[in-house]
Write a structure and sequence with these properties.
Elements lengths: L4 H17 L6 H4 L5 H17 L4 E7 L3 H7 L5 E6 L9 E2 L8 E10 L10 H7 E11 L10 H6 L4 E6 L15 E6 L2 E7 L7 H13 L10 E3 L7 E2 L5 E6 L3 E7 L1
Parallel strand pairs: 1-9, 3-12
Antiparallel strand pairs: 1-2, 4-5, 4-9, 4-10, 5-6, 7-8, 7-11, 11-12
Bound molecules: 2-oxoadipic acid (OOG) and magnesium ion.
Length: 262
Amino acid sequence: MKLDSKTIEALAERLESCELQAHDTTKITDDYPDMDWDDAYAIQNTIKASKIARGSRIVGLKAGLTSHAKMKQMGVTTPVFGFMADYYAVPDGGECKVSEMIHPKVEPEIAFVTKSELRGPGCHIGAVLAATDFVLPGIEVIDSRYRDFKFDLKSVVADNTSAARFVVGGQPVDVSGVDLRTVGIVLEKNGVPVAFGAGAAVLGHPAAAIAMLANHLAERGECIPAGTLILSGGITEAVSVAAGDNVTLRVQGMGSTSIRFV
Ligand code: OOG
Ligand code: MG
């Protein structure tokens, strides 16, 4: 750790107030170029603790920057991990208020729900599939708190990996009946297909993102408990949205889920 606890608290406060008031900020690494990964996750954890202290529940976890398309779009090379608070959840077909966002984008993802605990180190795709209750379509709404959506990895980790809202829905399926590498997805905006892909875009297999998350948590003495919802990361580039947009994700064999921006 390179930052003291007062600085970590202050940076968490700065980023969370940007989230809650929908205004942007400069990258925190501009001010603290020497901050390290532990500092970045400590800031994210401080934001999580402050939400819990105000009565929010944590309802899921996420992996991000797990596809080549996303890494290329954001100019980074390593996946990152974050959490989802209860008020991020939008019901299937429900509304996201653009006035609560800075510059929202949507990402097509495969969501996993676990039925048994996943614990690293050494967690692998096989363990993830054995521990998965079902998978289903998920749209993540990301909204970087950084100006112009420009950041580096440590800044985005501190900012809870741009997490803002999400929706899951469609047809939950058992992983034994689907090859998540070849499963096709279509993301539609206002009825027009805008992004296409297949599960293998995420680290070769979306379950690999969940295994990476379990191994990452193991380094901190944590695990993925049974019954956890996890977003495995955007399969394609993120797509900008504005008020009036209607976004639907169709996943082969899993139906669809949608969200409206108002
Ligand atoms: C970081 C979060 C990326 C994903 O699915 O790749 C992410 C960002 O691009 O703002 O959630
Ligand atoms: Mg995402």
